[in-house]
Design goal:
It is globular and about 35 Å long. The chain starts with a helix and ends with a strand. The chain contains 1 helix and 12 strands. By secondary structure, the chain is mainly β. It has one helix at 2-20; strands at 31-35, 38-42, 44-52, 58-65, 69-71, 77-90, 99-103, 112-123, 131-145, 148-157, 162-169, 172-175. Strands 1, 2, 3, 4, 5, 6, 7, 8, 9, 10, 11 and 12 form a 12-stranded mixed beta sheet that branches.
Length: 177
C-alpha cells in the first residue's frame, strides 16, 4: 500500500513539474493596458526616431504591442494584434528621457506627446483594424535604467473613456531618417 501511495504521489508531482518550468512559453506579460473594462496584455515595445525637430527636441514614436505583433526593420511592425502609439518629444536621439510626458495639442514641445492612439486587432498586411481610439489627454511616465524601461500611462480617449497601463522591458530602436 505504501509503495502504491509513493508511486501515485511521484506521478502527480512529476505531472505538475512542466507547469512550473520557467522556460514554458506562458511567461508573464511585460505589461498590460485597460480600456473599457477589459485588460489587454503587452509583450513588446519599440521606439522610432523621426529626427531632430526645429524646436531642438527629438520626435520619438513609442509603440507598445500585444503578442501577435513584432518590430520589423523594414516596416514599423508585422503581424496582427493590439497596438498603442504615442508621439513623444525627448532630448535624446536613441532613447526616451526619464520624464512624465504630458499630452499637448502643440507639436514639438519637449516633455509632451501630441498624438496617440490605440488600435485593436491591427493587421499589418491589410493595414486594417477592428477599432481605433484616439488618445487626447493624459500622461505617459517613463523611467529608464540602462536598456530597461518602465512605462506607465493614464490617458483619456476622444470618446471620454480612460486607457491606462504599464509596460516593463526593453524597447527596440528604429531610425526613420
Amino acid at each position: 500500500m505504501n509503495k502504491r501511495l509513493l508511486v501515485l504521489v511521484t506521478a502527480i508531482v512529476v505531472g505538475f513539474l512542466p507547469a512550473c518550468d520557467e522556460s514554458n512559453e506562458s511567461t508573464p506579460d511585460a505589461g498590460y493596458f485597460i480600456y473599457n473594462g477589459t485588460t489587454y496584455p503587452l509583450y513588446k515595445g519599440q521606439i522610432g526616431n523621426y529626427g531632430l525637430e526645429p524646436s531642438g527636441c527629438y520626435n520619438t514614436a513609442l509603440y507598445l504591442f500585444s503578442d501577435g505583433l513584432s518590430p520589423d526593420p523594414e516596416l514599423d511592425f508585422v503581424g496582427q494584434g493590439n497596438l498603442i502609439y504615442f508621439a513623444l518629444f525627448s532630448t535624446t536621439e536613441n532613447a526616451l528621457d526619464n520624464s512624465v510626458y504630458q499630452w499637448s495639442s502643440v507639436e514639438e514641445t519637449l516633455g509632451t506627446f501630441y498624438q496617440a492612439d490605440c488600435m485593436f486587432n491591427y493587421n499589418s498586411v491589410t493595414e486594417s483594424y477592428d477599432s481605433k481610439v484616439d488618445i487626447i489627454g493624459g500622461t505617459v511616465s517613463v523611467e529608464r535604467n540602462a536598456d530597461e524601461y518602465t512605462i506607465t500611462f493614464d490617458c483619456t480617449c476622444s470618446n471620454s473613456k480612460k486607457i491606462t497601463g504599464t509596460y516593463t522591458g526593453s524597447l527596440s530602436l528604429k531610425y526613420y531618417n
